[in-house]
Design brief:
By secondary structure, the chain is an all-alpha fold. The chain has one domain. It contains 14 helices and no strands. Helix 6 packs antiparallel against helix 11. The protein is globular. The two termini are about 20 Å apart. It is a multi-pass membrane protein. It is found in: Cell membrane. Keywords: Cell membrane, Membrane, Transmembrane, Transmembrane helix. It comes from Roseiconus lacunae. This is Lysylphosphatidylglycerol synthase transmembrane domain-containing protein.
């Protein structure tokens, strides 16, 4: 029998996303509703957006599998897709309970006892490579768009976004280069860090697994290319959704700035699956980025994209129902660990 605390937690998991959606819908202006309703919708284009998004998510599972193998942990592509689909589903459960990353790390640790740190390293690096791919994509779009973006009063905000992306890309590039190509210099830093008081034991355990990618530079480079592919396909999916709903939307190139930045906002662990953060960011960027003003609602387009992700997450329920004992035990352990924190 569920305890009152579990019942309240379940209700919160349901009510919070519903409340966020209701708030977002209330923010859509009458003009945007009118623009949406005054023309036919392109449903084949909408279906294409779903298939493109499925391809993007599948490519992200392949990327994670590659990084796991770099840590010396056996994982087949079929297992990676099964676990990835379940984790994608879990990311919609809550912002602070059993997230997909926690489940991945625990499952891999059970698969290879004594390699828990390596399992965590693969998950952390996968998340880092994903964020780095987003920044690269947005920065490349800024370069190609040049001075065609917003001007006047909005140009200051534009320059701040451009500068922020540039700084983060530089920092990310330096960190990744040190991680993969640092060689003996980084190894010496790890050994010195291991002798430091308090944080020494952590550095000693975490350093070597992260440095494991030094032995797999080609695979690591492929993971970055895959990250660009993942976010590029997701950007295409959002663009197809926009074109299926509205006749006039920001250009294809402008979406390659709008969507990656929106996804960076949704990566903050504040709401379930970034719900609300992504919509707010897309709505703001729809007003800021386009060189030609549009009546298209970034909020509605982002909400439809969330529905597409929910449809993909439903696939995760199929994998969950057919999961073996090892997967279910890992999920139970993840649940207990999340509750203990």
């Amino acid at each position: 029998m569920n305890s009152p605390r579990q019942i309240l937690l379940t209700l919160a998991k349901v009510m919070i996303p519903l409340g966020i959606i209701a708030f977002l819908v209330s923010r859509v202006t009458p003009e945007q509703w009118e623009s949406l309703s005054e023309h036919d919708k392109n449903y084949p284009l909408l279906a294409s957006a779903l298939f493109v998004a499925v391809g993007a998510i599948s490519l992200s599972f392949i990327r994670w599998c590659l990084l796991v193998r770099c840590q010396g942990i056996d994982l087949t592509m079929l297992e990676a897709h099964r676990l990835g689909a379940i984790c994608f589903l879990l990311n919609f459960v809550s912002a602070g309970s059993v997230g997909g990353d926690l489940f991945k790390a625990i499952f891999l640790a059970k698969r290879r006892p004594g390699r828990r740190v390596q399992a965590v390293a693969s998950v952390v690096v996968d998340r880092g490579v994903g964020l780095y791919g987003l920044l690269l994509l947005a920065s490349a779009a800024f370069v190609f768009q040049g001075n065609q973006l917003a001007s006047g009063a909005e140009s200051e905000d534009m320059q701040k976004i451009r500068f922020g992306c540039g700084v983060l890309v530089i920092l990310g590039t330096v960190v990744l280069c040190l991680l993969v190509f640092g060689g003996a210099f980084v190894d010496r830093l790890v050994r010195r860090g291991a002798r430091l008081p308090m944080i020494g034991p952590v550095v000693e355990r975490v350093g070597p697994p992260l440095r494991m990618f030094h032995h797999h530079p080609l695979a690591f480079g492929m993971s970055i290319l895959m990250s660009l592919g993942v976010h590029g396909l997701l950007t295409v999916s959002v663009y197809l959704i926009a074109r299926s709903l509205y006749p006039s939307v920001p250009t294809f190139a402008e979406h390659f700035i709008i969507v990656p930045i929106g996804m960076l906002a949704s990566a903050l662990p504040i709401t379930p699956a970034g719900l609300g953060l992504f919509e707010a960011a897309i709505e703001w960027l729809y007003q800021l980025i386009p060189s030609e003003p549009t009546l298209a609602s970034g909020t509605l387009i982002a909400l439809v994209f969330e529905i597409v992700k929910v449809i993909i997450a439903i696939i995760g329920t199929v994998f969950y129902w057919t999961a073996g004992d090892e997967v279910r035990e890992s999920m139970e352990e993840a649940e207990h660990e999340a509750e203990s924190h």
